[in-house]
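Morning F.,

Quick status update on the modeling queue. The single chain you submitted on Monday has been processed. Sequence for confirmation:
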Amino acid sequence: MRVAACPLCGSSTEECPPNRRPFRHCPACDLIHVAKEAQPTPEQSAERYRHHRNSRTDAGYVAMLNETIAFLEDGAANLRRILDYGCGSNPVLAELLRDRGYRVTAYDPLFAPAADLSAPFDAVVAVEVFEHFTDPALDLRRISSLLSAGGRLVARTLLHHGPNTLTDWWYARDLTHVVFYSARTFDWIAGAFGLQLIRCSEDRLVLLKRPACRGAGA
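Structure tokens below.
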């Protein structure tokens, strides 16, 4: 039975095998999402985020962020202005990027909604953010519009391996994780939002790029 539109591409979705929450799979773009009625409210999500213990004193967390920065910088040129999209209540990534001399804006719809998003960015970095998008098409339209020509988008989010693999996947048990992507999903995203999929690394780091000019290659 096909009902319920995909929140990314708008196609009809299918029920996933029974699980703790009602998941739906989109055959068109390969997105998996939690049914709207089972998603937490913004207030419930904010309360959970406030309990995150992400700080510069957490060596493992900082190492993960530095790995993400290295992935962003690999092969990049002329990175100056960077947007930390979904920075949370403690924007450690923004601090680490500033330490490297970048001009950084930290934005979060709950914790930093008034950030200045008026100018194009050379890069947008979203660490453990994409899985929280209740309306991924809306966020991706916004992100793609914020990238300068040649600008990079780095997303760090675990990629799924099909609707039959969710039952034992710890990542799907977090109630604030409501959308899950695959490499095929990011390939669809690239085509739909005028980007190029450059690479996926270790099922968790994805690099997309806005062409430097119309018709330009990677």
